[in-house]
Structures are given as structure tokens and as C-alpha cells.
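Page 37, continued from 36.
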């Protein structure tokens, strides 16, 4: 059911349209884990009624018109997803933000987050661009020249930052090591 081609361009066009995920509780794991496959993602989406079992290009076009970014993400292939992330990276670069982790990393993380949100039933509306930014900030990979901890606190808010600290102690420690101020 993976659909390529024009869908990549559409992901870019609709990069600020709401998608499903939860913030600041994106479903990251601190442990080594096996990433979600496209088959796993598709199966979960079908089981939860997000996409029909026989979804095709006509269905995708309808979802594009509705601007349903999660469904589009589920239905397109990794080439389209990578194109979307590459465009987000370029957009951030124009704003003076450097993202160093590879686009493939972000594709895996976003796919995992969407899958976990689907299976856990904790889907809330959020933009794919914000999911990307949240992951980059949590990883200490969002480099806008400012202190990484200060950026994380500003983006997540104090309560969200403390939740992040509790839920992801390994990521928090890595973020602290990357921060020159090292403020706890």
C-alpha cells in the first residue's frame, strides 16, 4: 500500500497541518529497541480504523484534501518521508537552526511515535513539524546557537521539561552533557 511520487511533495506542502502525537510525551524509549516496520504501522492503523484495509491512491488523495498528515505519513513510503524531513531540515537551516542527526533517524522516530500513539490510543492533534522539532530538542540536536537546556525548557515549559527529565533520564543526561550551562 506504500504510495510514492507526488505524495512526497504533498507532505512538504502540508508540513504544518495537524497530525497525531502527544507532547511532550512523544513515545520515545531510552532503551535500544526495534523500530516499527511499515507493515506494523499499517496493521495498527487498519485495526484502529484510521485507514481501510483496501486503502489506495484515491483514498490517499481524499486524505490529502482533508490534510490528514498522519494518514498521509502512514500511506507513503520512506522516500516521501525522507523528502519531507529533508525539507524540514532545510527550512530550519534557513532560520539558523542546525540539525545534525540524519533524516533517517527522524523518519524512524516519527513513525515510531505515530505507531505508539495509535496503539496506546493517546492520539492528540499536533503538527508533524512540531513532532520533528520536539524530537530534535529532546535529543539535543536542535542547534540554534542557544543553550540546549534553555531551548528545551522554553519549548516544553517547566512542567513539560520536568516530565521529560523523569520519563527520559538517559536523554536528559545526554542533553545536560551537551549544554554548556549544565543547569539542573
Amino acid at each position: 500500500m506504500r504510495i510514492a511520487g507526488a505524495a512526497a511533495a504533498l507532505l512538504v506542502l502540508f508540513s504544518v497541518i495537524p497530525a497525531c502525537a502527544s507532547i511532550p510525551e512523544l513515545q520515545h524509549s531510552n532503551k535500544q529497541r526495534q523500530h516499527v516496520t511499515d507493515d506494523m504501522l499499517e496493521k495498527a492503523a487498519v485495526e484502529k480504523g484510521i485507514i481501510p484495509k483496501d486503502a489506495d491512491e484515491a483514498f490517499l488523495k481524499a486524505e490529502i484534501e482533508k490534510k490528514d498528515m498522519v494518514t498521509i505519513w502512514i500511506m507513503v513510503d520512506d522516500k516521501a518521508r525522507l523528502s519531507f524531513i529533508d525539507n524540514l531540515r532545510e527550512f530550519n537551516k534557513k532560520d539558523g537552526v542546525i540539525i545534525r542527526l540524519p533524516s533517517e533517524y527522524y523518519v524512524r522516530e516519527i513513525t515510531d511515535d505515530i505507531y505508539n500513539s495509535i496503539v496506546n490510543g493517546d492520539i492528540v492533534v499536533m503538527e508533524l513539524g512540531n513532532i520533528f522539532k520536539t524530537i530534535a530538542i529532546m535529543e539535543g540536536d536542535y542547534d540554534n546557537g542557544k543553550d540546549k537546556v534553555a531551548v528545551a525548557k522554553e519549548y516544553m515549559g517547566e512542567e513539560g521539561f520536568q516530565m521529560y527529565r523523569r520519563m527520559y533520564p538517559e536523554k536528559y543526561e545526554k542533553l545536560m552533557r551537551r549544554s554548556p550551562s549544565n543547569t539542573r
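Residues 6-139 form one domain. Flag for discussion at group meeting. The CA atoms of residues 25 and 164 lie 7 Å apart.
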